[in-house]
Amino acid sequence: MKKFSYKELDSILHGKQIYRRNEYSFDFLPDNHDELKELIGAMGTTSLSIGTLQIEISIENRKLLYVWGYHPYFNWKTASILEPEAFLGSVTLSPKHKLEPGVSLAVAEDEKWQTFHDANSGCIVVTRYEDFLTGTCIKIADDCTIELKGNSLFSLVLHVEMVDKVASPLPHNVN
To answer: Rounded to an integer, what distance in angstroms lies between the CA atom of residue 122 and that of residue 117?
Structure first.
């Protein structure tokens, strides 16, 4: 299982988390590509995976950046979800895990993750268990919160805009 640490920050990555219904996928559209390039650093990015869902991560500083990837809504469960209280911060992957460009690492090898969706709030939670939002919640980017329990990643909390098509370049192609 991958280990993580976190720290509070005054500022986070600004942008919009979307879900493209026609592609069955999440994406993050940064407000400022230069800001994103600075956060990524010179070594580029790779990703952590939860099935086909990806958490983009800077190889240079090991910080989790945003969520993207294929994640069909057919199996999502309906739930009433209040966005958690979260502080602005960064979540960093332990240095014991080797990062390489283009080589995704599984967050947890043998665990089944579930997805809960609240159509009224636009909140989506991808989690290991139904007992979510009881850990430490860190907002790493606009519309993207990571829940940790101890030093383990427990949930992703996304506040998304559902769209059919967006004519904008994918952020994970900026480096």
So the answer is: 7
pTM: 0.90
- Enter the DSSP assignment of 109: T
The secondary structure of 76-96, three-state, reads: CEECCCCCCCCEEEEEEECCC
Task: Let me know the angle formed at the C-alpha of 154 by 8 and 13, rounded to the nearest 5 degrees.
Answer: 40
> Token digits for 12?
């986070």
Q: How many CB atoms sit inside 10 A of residue 3's CB?
A: 15
Query: Bridge-partner residues for 46, per DSSP?
Result: 57
| 40 φ/ψ angles, rounded to the nearest 5 degrees | -70, -45
List pLDDT tens digits, range 39-53: 999 999 999 999 999
Beta-bridged to residue 9, according to DSSP, are none
Tell me the C-alpha distance between 159 and 119, whole Å. Answer: 10
